[in-house]
Every structure is written in structure tokens, then in C-alpha cells.
Amino acid sequence: MLIEQSAYANRWRRVSPAAKAAFALCGFIGAFVAGTPSAAVAVAGLLAVVTMAGAGVSPGRYLRVAVPALFFLSISCLSLAFSLDFKGEAQAMTFKLTPAGLQQVADVSARSLAALAALLFLVLTTPLIDLIALLRRLKTPELLLEMMVLCYRMLFVFSAAVHDTLTAQSARLGYATTGLALRSLGGLAASLTLQIWQRAHDLHVAAQARNNDGPLRFLEPRFANCGRDGALAAASGGALITLAVWLS
Amino acid sequence: MMLLELEQASYRYPNGGVGLEACSLAIRRGSRNALIGANGSGKTTLFQHCNGLLRPQSGVLRYAGTVLDYSRSGLRQLRSKVGLVFQNPDHQLFSASVQEDVSFGPFNLGLDEATVRRRVSAALDAVGMAGFAERAVHNLSFGQKKRVCIAGVLAMEPELLVLDEPMAGLDHAMKTEFLAVLDGLHAQGITLLLATHDIDLAYRWADYIHLIDSGVCTASLPAADLAYRDDALSALGLPLPTVVELQRRLTARGLLPKGLLPRTHSELLTLLDNTYDGKEAPCC
Lengths: 248, 284
Hints:
Radius of gyration of chain A: 24 Å
Structural class of chain A: mainly alpha
Largest sheet of chain A: 2 strands, antiparallel
Largest sheet of chain B: 6 strands, mixed
Number of strands of chain A: 2
Strand content of chain A: under 5%
Helix content of chain A: over 70%
Order of helices and strands of chain A: HHHHEEHHHHH
Largest interface: A-B, 30 and 42 residues
Helix content of chain B: 25-40%
Shape of chain B: globular
Structural class of chain B: alpha/beta
CATH superfamily of the largest domain in chain B: P-loop containing nucleotide triphosphate hydrolases
CATH topology of the largest domain in chain B: Rossmann fold
Order of helices and strands of chain B: EEEHEEHEHHHHEHEHEEHHH
Number of helices of chain B: 11
Number of domains of chain A: 2
Strand order of the largest sheet of chain A: 1-2
Oligomer: heterodimer
Number of helices of chain A: 9
């Protein structure tokens, strides 16, 4: 929801999604061409600054969205930094921190940070509906896009259904004890399974009612100044890659 | 002239439940129709027959005087003329954005993009949602979703718009706005058929009222005649419209002249004002 709110409420909502995707792609390239951890961190920092200062995404929201990804990144870094060692007659298990491991952690984590910042720039400034339209223009297979559209829509329908069912269960003390909570969760899962089947059928009927008997076709949003936005994105993306190379 | 006619249509669901039982219904072109019946009386089943989603196991459906051909092309033709708006908007809306969803029907008609854009814009205008074209569907309120559902069907430029309990879940202000939207569509020449439980709404809004019970259309009458059909209403467990009860009581007490049939409370109040303009009402 945080991502969704930001994607709709940022200053660059009306900027062409193709331009934003191009800039994000340059960010990814910058992350990979950065030869040193400091260069990759600089790329990450720049992308974060562009997202917050340029698109107007608040630092608090940015951090809240980034935290889960950073958590997984830190877990991965820990497993890279320490290596297992079995020593002595007792074959006692020890963890070892090696300089080579630390260097590897610095390289991988800095690059991942830059790639994460590029991805966050794209998702926090561009609603998924614009991205799907962009993917359609890029000739992504129609079946994949239809599944994306339906999954995206269903995500919100089911989150509302889960919320309603949880509220109804809680109102009748469904989660008062651990045992009851487990029972209620089972009920929730069963109810959702039935709802998924029912909703799928309802959507099929609704599509038929509007004369659908084949692919799902929709109108794509239009953006003014696509050329200007694209040129700006290409220039700034190019500058970002150059900076990453220069700092390496 | 009759636009849609269902003649002696019967339908049973696979589980044996009765959907329709020798049900006959006729909708006049350009009219406003309300279908009234209790929950489970067959309203939704009847509407799904109107759109060709269900096929009667006996009986026929006629559209503009022609018996419906249930072939693929026959159904395409019917569904391009009869738009069905479902009761729950979340069952109908499945695109991510408002504009996308409204464009779904016109694209299914095989129209080119320019025409679809024009129709989408006109349909959103007609329901007062022009400023929401690029909004995500899940960010809309319930009432707004209902409007988008109507726009999605309007963009197909139907002749008959069938609405399954459109007022369910709407507050008073939303209902008023919604009725204004429906009146606007009627003024454009679209025939309207809606299902409702609200007898007062049906009496004040519709030209014709159709009653349904246990899959049988028990009565079809001009709305003005409803005031004399206590029997038909009580057979369905429905009360008389409040304004009719009030008018009867006022007439019986000599407070209103006989023969006046207001359809709304504001009409009744105007009648009272006109009757006692400058005079004192007799004491009860």
C-alpha cells in the first residue's frame, strides 16, 4: 500500500513511464558497472536523492519501503561474511570472519543497494497500471499481462476480503486465545479458497456480459512530453553510468 | 414498441433450484422500469437472461421483435445492445484503472482505439467520473465503483441498460446522485430496467413496475396503477408506497381532494400547500 500511495502521489506521476523505466535501467547498469563499493554506494545515494528530492517521495516512506529489502540484504551479507569451519579432533564448528569475505560483502551489498535504489525509484514513482501499459507497448506476451492485471486487481479485492473476514472473526472473539486464533485462521483460509473460486466465476460472467470471448484488451494511458522526458532520462541515466565508471 | 420480451421463460439451476418459472416480461423502448421482488425471487436470474448469459430451458427471449439467436454472433449482437450492471462492483471491475475497465467493453466490440477513447470519455462524463479516468479502481469509493460499472456498460452504447440492485449499499446522497445519472441516461433515450427492494423509489422513479416472486413475474403495470394494486403487493409481502398510504389517509380525513395521486413526498407537500394556500387546514 505504501508503494501504491507513493506511486500515485509523487511529483513525477505524469512523467512518461518509459522515461522513468529508462532511467531506472541506467541505474541498474550503473550498479553493475560500478567497480568499487564506494562507486556503487554513490550510485545508490544519487538514485535515492533523485527519488526523494526529485519525485518528492518522503524520506520516511522511502525508508519504510526499503526496510524489508534491507533486512534480507543484511541477512545475505551475514551469511557471506562468515564461513563455517570444523577444527580439531572434536570437529567443533566455528564461524570465521575473513578479509576476503568482508570484501565480498562490501562489493555485493553496495551493488545490491544501488540496484535496490533503482528499483525503488521506478516503483515509487510509477503506478503498476502504467508499467503494465509500458510492458504492453514493449510487446510482452499478452497472457502474462492479463495475469498481471488480474493478479493486481485481485490483490486489493482479496485484501479487502481478508480484512472483512478478520474483522468479523475478531468481533466474535475469534482470536481471543491461541487455539481459537488457529481455528479462525483455518476458517479464513477455507473461506478465501471458496471466495477465490466464486470471484473467478463472477469475473468470467462479467467479462462475458461485456461481450468478451478472447483476449482482454484495454485502453492505454497517454502521457504528454514523452520525447522530452525520454531525452532527459537518457541524458541523466547516461551521466549516472559515466559517474559510476569514473568513480571506479 | 416492445424492446425486450421474455415469454414463458423457465430456468432451473443445475442443483435443481428454480430460477424462473414460466416468466413473462415485456420492456417498452425508452421506458424506465423497476423490477421488484424479495431476495431469491429470481431478479438476477431474469437479468442474466436479458443479457443472454443464461438461456431459458423453455420459452423464448425476443429482442426488438426477433427471437434471440443463441449462436456466438447472436449473443454478441444482444450483448452489444443490452448492458448488464452487476450488483457488486467488485464482481464486475477487473482492470487496474478506471479508464482501462471502461474501455474493456468497446474493445470487445471490435472498435478502433480512437473510437474507444471517445466512447470512454463520453461514458465517464455521463456518470460524472471524467476526473477519475486514470485512478486505480481499488482507490474508489463504493458509489464511485458503481458509477464506473455503469460507464463500462454505457461505453458499449447499449439500447437497454439493466441494473441489478444499483442502490444497494448507497447512502441517501449517493442514491440521489445516482438517480440523477439514471435520469440523464433516460433523457438520452436509453431504456432502463433496474431491480430494487425499495417500493417508494420504484413508485416515484419508474414508468412501469414489474413484480417477481419465486421466478414468476406476477404483475407488470404502469407505476401510477400501483396505488390501486394492494393485492399484488401484499401477495409479495410488500407494503404500499409510503406516499400512497399518506395520501389515502389525508383524503379519507378530507384533508386532500379525491383523485390526486402524488408520486413523491415533495409532490404531496406541494398539493397540501396548494390546497391550503392562505386557508387554515381543518382540525383533525
